[in-house]
Amino acid sequence: MQLMVAIVPNSGVEPAVSQLVQSGLRVTRLASTGGFLRQGNTTLLVGVEDDRVDEAIVALREALERSGAEDQDRSIVYVLGVSRFDQL
Known about the structure:
Layout: E1 2-9, H1 13-22, E2 27-34, E3 39-48, H2 53-66, E4 76-81
Helix pairs in contact: 1-2
């Protein structure tokens, strides 16, 4: 399992979350700020099976391109290995 941490500009959050959920992925949103002029961002946490990481990144990329986010409002995605996952 992998954990995707995506830092997305607020202008692209709704399409990104919608696309990821439609792909069958669960998403947790965290409000965040940072970058140039402390612009508003949202950090998305997405648990992804190893074989679906590329699919999730493509879905995120397509949603952000459709949202019309400008080049200066780029997103950053980290993919981290998860050694253990429990649902309680």
